[in-house]
Specification:
Layout (H helix, E strand, L loop, with lengths): L7 E3 L7 E3 L3 E6 L2 E6 L2 E9 L2 E8 L12 H4 L6 E3 L2 E3 L3 E6 L3 E6 L4 E4 L5 E3 L2 E7 L4 E5 L13 E4 L20 E6 L2 E7 L5 E4 L7 E6 L4 E7 L3 H12 L12 E3 L7 H13 L6 E4 L20 H10 L3 E5 L4 E2 L7 H8 L14 E3 L2 E4 L6 H9 L2 H6 L3 E4 L19 E4 L7 E4 H4 L3 H16 L7 E3 L11 E3 L7 H15 L6 E2 L11 H11 L5 E3 L15 H16 L1 H14 L4 E2 L1 H4 L11 H4 L4 E3 L3 E3 L11 E3 L4 E5 L5 E5 L7 H8 L4 E3 L8 E4 L3 E4 L14 E6 L6 E8 L13 E9 L5 E5 L12 E7 L8 E3 L2 E2 L3 E3 L2 E7 L5 E5 L1
Parallel strand pairs: 21-22, 21-33, 22-23, 23-27, 27-30, 30-31, 31-32, 43-47
Antiparallel strand pairs: 1-2, 3-4, 4-5, 5-6, 6-20, 7-8, 8-9, 9-10, 10-11, 12-13, 13-19, 14-16, 15-18, 16-17, 17-20, 18-19, 24-26, 25-26, 28-29, 34-35, 35-36, 36-41, 37-40, 38-39, 38-41, 42-43, 44-45, 45-46, 46-52, 47-51, 48-49, 48-52, 50-51
Helix pairs in contact: 6-9, 11-12
Length: 823
């Protein structure tokens, strides 16, 4: 057992020789320990067997509260077993050496994380230093530009309006201080829950260590052990909450511009989409629909029949999303209700002298809600009342870093005052220094909860530009004001993958690039790739050429339309994957290593071989765009282990290899005979499906309001000999919260290849009470090594069809499940 005054401990990982702990006391607790050395206290708490919270302070402990972490998770406690130098759980051991030297190991004794030096305090700021191995890789931190792997880079967390950001830009819009560490085939996550300006260095200062720190606030971080990446994602969702399931229509194609103006232009775009039969579900309005750019107003000259326009769009099966910037125009005495009611309720931020802070944004002088007050968030939510009543479907929280035009810092003075008045927090006044990085999160929360209060059983749809860890509970997001360049297209995949690994699974990038005008081929290729990403929104800046799918003539339009149509055929799969995300935090866009964590011999992420261009859409689809999308030379495709099928043709694409090496020459020698060389073509995006997948698909529709005609398809991609397969389909009404009360449909399916070459497909019993649009299932089977001529369903013979390389049968949905045999 630990003693309250321990005289000696081991310098862990360095030596087994006892070293005196000068002025250090270690005290066990029911769920961890505290240790004090030279006036600094370290507290390690086991929240669960594989989840730790680490806090450190001088003098008194800081306030125990969080904007990011769920209260139930933060206060969870696991029982631990004390050791002579720390404690252990069933998953982890924690050891404390001299100078509060912290080491965390797994139950097999592998060091997962180890301090390299004691915490470095500089005034109110500090840095935490950890040892870094040669084969250690880092992912997450939101939508930071650059490569997928953060190793060797450094970053600042400070939400910043950065129009036209480039690959080297940092910081940009979000501060998500969460990263996943992958080394030697083991993974863990770290959430550094500090809302001040923070920094992360993953080996730039020293290749032997990484560090994170802040200019102020608490040393407060969470250690979430895997060892598999999926387990880390589940742990992060447990800690900060999963993203709620968005409405089904939000997974359709979305068309936007800064700005469609006047209203006749927006209606013309809607009519053109329907005339050309380009499936679409949402249209967006940027700030020019407002009167003098004042949020929560409508320009009655340019949009004279706004309510009627919204209703007309709804009749044409379009959902309208409007911008609602966080600032409020400083316009007294003109009947501007947001200003008048906000002033009356004392809802705006203050200067140090107590006067209301005023900064310039789009409407000119503007004031800013103090969202750290719960009552202010509730007030802000009421501002959506008229738009909700008119039928506006979603809202766009922009400029919420917060952006202010007056200063080179692009935000308000750091001494601007916030008056925290929030359950679970001490009631106090603090500076913008502490609140800046959570301002966007709290804006999103105000919008989400406000719209939910106005439509209590409907899923709010809020998109935010700025946020913090946990902000995914309230809003989807996008990567901000990107540019119309091939390089920005290339950067989109790692950005969305890292956003997904930071909790923001429901994310996208402005298709075609916001700043600048894309050449036709770039817009076409971007639309192709975006068809396989969570949010497919085509958006462009004022003064650029139009981005709509038809703008470059019929040849380009035909290609673009084809990929948008394929997205709609895949909506059952997209929605099923999205529902999984809403339960377990697994991102929709996944790096390959998340699905195949042991595909390399040395445990390094397989994505380092592919260059990060390939990505998984859910567990079953692999999208392989050109890593240099503007180039015409052939490029390599490296498939993960197992059988793979070409999505477009159904042909077997080859068998990926395991045991891949990182060194390029050795890798090429190993893969020379099995790698796939692809020739870039404008009209082609290579897409593959995992052998062993069962992919749900539907007939083509023009919007999610339209009921598909025909059966739901379950396309079975047979695995290698002796393997099994699995898949599922999930659906509900697509818009309400009734699914939380059992109003959903879920069916799981499996398959197996028998010894005699026959194939069995098992459809599980239906879960949930919702009645889906389909009454029949079409089972398609690809990859059989023999000709299949007979089929039975629950022992009864049924007709079998064969065409285009697959066989199929059609059966009614049996709520009790069915067993299908093909031979």
């Amino acid at each position: 057992m630990l003693r309250s005054n321990l005289c000696c401990l081991f310098v862990l990982g360095l030596s087994s020789v006892p070293v005196a702990l000068a002025q250090q006391a270690v005290r066990p607790t029911a769920s961890g320990l505290t240790a004090t050395s030279d006036g600094v206290t370290l507290e390690v708490t086991a929240l669960q067997a594989d989840k730790l919270r680490i806090r450190e302070w001088r003098s008194a402990p800081p306030e125990d509260a969080s904007w990011a972490v769920l209260s139930a998770s933060r206060t969870s406690r696991a029982t631990v077993t004390a050791d002579s130098n720390g404690f252990h759980t069933s998953q982890l051991s924690v050891e404390v050496g001299s100078d509060l030297h912290l080491v965390i190991r797994d139950h097999e004794g592998h060091i997962l994380q180890e301090d390299s030096t004691p915490a470095q305090w500089r005034g109110d700021g500090f840095h935490i230093y950890k040892k870094r191995g040669d084969n250690e890789h880092f992912f997450g931190l939101g939508d930071k530009p650059g490569p997928l792997d953060r190793a060797g880079q450094e970053f600042t967390m400070w939400n910043t309006d950065d129009f036209g950001w480039q690959e080297s830009a940092d910081p940009i819009y979000k501060s998500v201080p969460f990263f996943m560490d992958v080394k030697d085939g083991r993974s863990f996550g770290v959430l550094f829950d500090n809302t001040w300006r923070t920094s992360f260095d993953f080996g730039r200062e020293s290749a032997q260590e990484y560090n994170f720190g802040s200019q102020g606030g608490p040393v407060d971080y969470y250690f979430l052990y895997g060892p598999e990446p999926k387990q880390v994602m589940a742990a992060y969702a447990w800690l900060t909450g999963p993203a709620p399931l968005p409405p089904l229509w939000s997974f359709g194609f979305q068309q936007s511009r800064y700005t469609y103006n006047p209203e006749s232009q927006l209606l013309d775009v809607a009519a053109h989409l329907r005339k050309d039969k380009i499936p679409a579900d949402a249209l967006w309005l940027d700030i020019d629909f407002q009167k003098d750019n004042m949020p929560f107003t409508v320009d009655s000259v340019r949009f004279p029949k706004f309510p009627e326009m919204v209703q007309q769009l709804a009749k044409d099966h379009f959902h309208l999303i409007v911008i609602a910037d966080t600032h409020i125009a400083d316009k007294p005495n003109i009947g501007y209700a947001p200003y008048d009611s906000g002033t009356a309720g004392d809802h705006f931020l203050k200067n140090p002298d107590g006067t209301t802070y005023v900064g310039k944004v789009w409407p000119g002088d503007s004031v800013f809600p103090d969202y750290t007050q719960a009552r202010t968030r509730k007030w802000f939510g009421t501002l959506y009342k008229d738009f909700v009543a008119q039928g506006v479907a979603g809202f766009w929280d922009d400029m919420n870093e917060p952006a202010v035009f007056r200063y080179p810092s692009k935000t308000m003075p750091l001494d601007t005052q916030h008056r925290i008045d929030e359950p679970g927090f001490a009631k106090r006044t603090t500076s913008h220094n502490e609140v800046h990085n959570i301002y966007g999160l709290l804006n999103s929360q105000a919008s989400y909860e406000g719209v939910l209060a106005l439509r209590p059983n409907e899923r709010p749809y809020v998109m935010t530009r700025a946020s913090y860890a946990g902000g995914h509970r309230y809003a989807v997001t996008w990567t901000g004001d990107n540019s119309s360049t091939w390089n920005h297209l290339r950067m989109t995949v790692p950005q969305l993958a890292n956003l997904g690994m930071s909790g923001f699974s429901f994310a996208g990038a402005d298709v075609g690039g916001f700043a600048g005008s894309p050449p036709p081929d770039l817009l076409t290729k971007w639309l192709e790739i975006a068809a396989f990403q969570p949010i497919d929104r085509d958006h462009s800046a004022k003064g650029t050429r139009m981005h709509e799918p038809w703008v470059d003539g019929p040849e380009q339009e035909a290609i673009r339309k084809h990929y948008i149509e394929e997205r709609y055929r895949l909506l059952p799969y997209l929605y099923t994957v999205a529902e999984e995300t809403s339960r377990d935090g697994m991102p929709m866009v996944r790096p390959l290593f998340m699905q195949y964590p042991h595909a390399t011999a040395d445990g390094s992420p397989v994505d380092l071989i592919t260059g990060g261009a390939e990505f998984m859409l859910g567990p079953d689809m692999l999208i392989a765009p050109n890593p240099s999308p503007e180039e015409v030379a052939q490029y390599e495709l490296h498939l993960p282990p197992g059988a793979w099928y070409d999505y477009w043709t159904g042909a077997r694409a080859g068998v990926g290899t395991g045991g891949q090496a990182r060194d390029a020459e050795v890798r090429d020698a190993l893969l020379e005979s099995k790698r796939i060389m692809l020739t870039p073509e404008l009209a082609t995006l290579p897409v593959y499906v995992r052998g062993g997948a069962i992919l749900p698909m539907q007939p083509l529709v023009q919007s999610t309001d339209e009921t598909p005609s025909g059966p739901l398809t379950l396309r079975v991609y047979l695995p290698t000999a002796g393997g099994t397969c699995n898949g599922s389909v999930y659906t509900d009404d697509g818009h309400s919260l009734n699914y939380r009360n059992g109003e959903y449909f879920r069916m799981n399916a499996t398959c197996a290849t028998e010894a005699d070459g026959s194939i069995s497909v098992s459809l599980g019993a239906v879960e949930g009470r919702y009645k889906p649009w389909f009454k029949q299932l079409r089972i398609e089977v690809l990859g059989s090594q023999q000709t299949l001529q007979q089929a039975t369903i629950d022992g009864k013979a049924t007709p079998i069809q064969s065409s285009n390389g697959f066989v199929s049968i059609t059966t009614a949905v049996n709520p009790r499940g069915s067993r299908i045999s093909l031979r």
